[in-house]
Write a structure and sequence with these properties.
The chain has five helices and ten strands; from the N terminus they run E-E-H-H-E-E-E-E-E-H-E-H-E-E-H. The chain is globular, with a radius of gyration of 17 Å. The two termini are about 30 Å apart.
């Protein structure tokens, strides 16, 4: 859980769907044997163990419409991401993202420690993008702290484009965006869309 106050520096990335994701870096035969599937109510226990959260919290997320997508190694959760298509609270920013209809937000992603180093996270992002594209979603968003260089590298490797960078002050349970900037080569329309997602207005 995020502290009551703090300064957050991060970026919002976007992938237009259907996505033409770059191929994986390693041949299929050299990769860990995992299978991709959406987690259902029967999987809340396994997810809770992997996430180190109370099972009730995992169930509550599903009950409000959030979806968990998982790479399974046997019966064990190896890597997971959550996906929302409505407003979603971002604890680090202490504010809700305004997700437009036809778009999704990927959040709270992780790979279980003993499965790291196998390239599972980019595989999971590619699989999620494929599912969302097949569902008719037009765009998917994902964010990361500016201190997580590895996440940014993964986003770029799976076809996401940086849209905006933001500095936000979190204080007394409220998030105040101090500054939003765009990369010099960012698509102006994409940057404007990202601002609307972050602020709820143009």
């Amino acid at each position: 859980m995020s502290a009551a106050w703090g300064l957050e520096r991060g970026a919002l990335w976007a992938l237009d769907l259907p996505a033409d994701c770059p191929p994986p870096a390693r041949p299929e035969r050299d990769r860990m044997d995992v299978h991709f599937a959406r987690a259902g109510p029967a999987d809340t226990g396994a997810l809770a163990v992997a996430m180190r959260l109370p099972e009730a919290e995992v169930a509550a997320r599903m009950a409000r419409g959030c979806r968990a997508f998982v790479l399974w190694h046997g019966e064990d959760v190896a890597s997971y991401c959550w996906v929302s298509i409505r407003r979603e609270r971002v604890g680090e920013l202490a504010r809700d993202l305004a997700i437009p209809a036809g778009e999704s937000y990927i959040w709270d992603c992780a790979t279980v420690v003993r499965f790291r180093g196998q390239g599972l996270y980019p595989r999971l992002l590619r699989a999620i993008a494929e599912v969302l594209g097949e569902e008719g979603q037009r765009r998917v968003w994902i964010g990361a702290s500016s201190t997580h260089a590895a996440s940014s590298q993964t986003f770029a490797a799976t076809g996401f484009r940086p849209a905006v960078a933001a500095i936000s002050l979190r204080i007394a349970g409220r998030g105040i965006i101090l500054r939003i900037t765009s990369p010099s080569d960012a698509d102006p329309a994409l940057a404007a869309a990202a601002r609307r997602v972050l602020t709820g207005h143009s």
